[in-house]
Amino acid sequence: MALLPVDEALERILEGVEPLAAEKVPLNSAAGRILAAPVEARCTQPPFDASAMDGYAVRATDVATVPAQLTVIGESAAGRRFSGTVGHGEAVRIFTGAPVPPGADTILIQENARLVAEGRIEAVETVAEGCHIRRAGLDFFDGATVLDVGRSLDPPALSLAAAAGHPELAVVGRPLVAIIATGDELVPPGTTPGPDQIVASNSFGIAALAGQDGADILNLGIVPDDRAMIADALSRALSADADLIVTLGGVSVGAHDLVREVLTAQGLELAFWRIAMRPGKPLIFGRLQGSRVLGLPGNPVSSLVCAHLFLRPLIAALSGRSFAPDLRAAELAAPMKANDERRDYVRARAENGPRGLVATPFTVQDSSMLTTLADANALILREPGACASEAGEPCQVLMLR
Ligand code: AMP
Ligand code: MG
To answer: Any idea what DSSP says for residue 20?
Structure first.
């Protein structure tokens, strides 16, 4: 199978992906989730004509010429309305959020009124009719659609859903991502590696990235390069109903790279294997029973870069979110060599300069080096067949944070 261009690989990964089935969650747990159904208001807001200020509910014609004296006949507070009607020459003491009593058509703010005697005020400024009154339904009416399907539940959306009378909301399900690290040489962090062993690191970064994007994680630990044990880990992921199984390592062409073989034996509908990119040529994607499988390369940098490119958009699509990589124009701070047939993602620091972003590639790009990935905030994209570039030439960067 020929090496697949990156963009085509992503297209195949996203082909036919639908947002997961909806579930109901209480408002308190809905932050960041995606609405699976529109939110229709169950009430009108404000439910009545309400005062927007502290002052007096009056008739505008009574204060058309000032000074004008009025008799205070009662009080309307938020949560406790005045039960009578405001007549000619009368006023009701009113506070923000309180219902405007019938008869009154204007709020005289208290700064423009003077108490002249017990129960008697004098208006010192005229007020136009309707001033400082929030009409019923100013925000929304009962039955109106206040939030659309696909809306991300950010803080204002959550408050709006609450105001519209919804204690819980239908949201797109969170994808369950099972992670399986493979390799005879791997030991968990905190244990002392034997003479030929290394510490397994990939699962932690991949889980964090997927978790940041709203996935639930099922970490299935480290599995040796053993067909039966890989098959067993896959069936544990499937019986947990993982929407996506991410395997780490074992997808290259070495004698101990057994993941592809086991997946094939289990009935994987292979979409592709091997991509025209660096880091991370060996990469598998396909469907296995009800789940999808993304087989990432074992080198830590390759697996995280591939996760940025392929795992994040897939999690977004399953979650009902759109996803746009943060691609920006920058200027090269150092020359770069001509590129071969694979798209190169070069770890770099991108900083603001006088003419915009300036990207400095790291001199050593070995795909096992997590230190450079941790220092990088961007990847410089080098297209297949790109000519050598000089410092100062334009380039495109993918921002990582
Ligand atoms: P593989 O893709 O299995 O051939 O692994 C490529 C390289 O990545 C090897 O040097 C492995 O030791 C290393 N590697 C594989 N899996 C992990 C992991 N989970 N954490 C850190 N390194 C890994
Ligand atoms: Mg391996």
So the answer is: P
Give residue 8 CA to ligand 2 midpoint distance, Å.
26
How far, in Å, are 140, 143, 145, 186 from residue 41 at the CA level?
7, 5, 6, 54
Q: Each residue of 42-69: pLDDT tens digit?
A: 999 999 999 999 999 999 999 999 999 9
Nearest CA residue ID for atom 11, ligand 1: 298
- Tokens (6 digits) for 285: 């994607």
For residue 372, pLDDT beyond 70: yes
CA-CA distance, 55 to 110, in Å (whole number)?
A: 4
Reply yes or no on whether the pLDDT at 1 is more than 70. Answer: no
| Residue ranges lining ligand 1, Cβ < 6 Å | 181, 183, 185-186, 198, 200-203, 248-250, 252, 254, 257, 297-300
**Cis-peptide into 38, omega within 30 deg:** no
The SS3 assignment for 271 reads: strand
Express each pLDDT in 148-175 by its tens digit. Answer: 999 999 999 999 999 999 999 999 999 9
For a mutational test of ligand 1's pocket, the pick from 275, 294, 368, 373, i.e. the residue with the most ligand atoms closer than 8 A to its C-beta, is 368
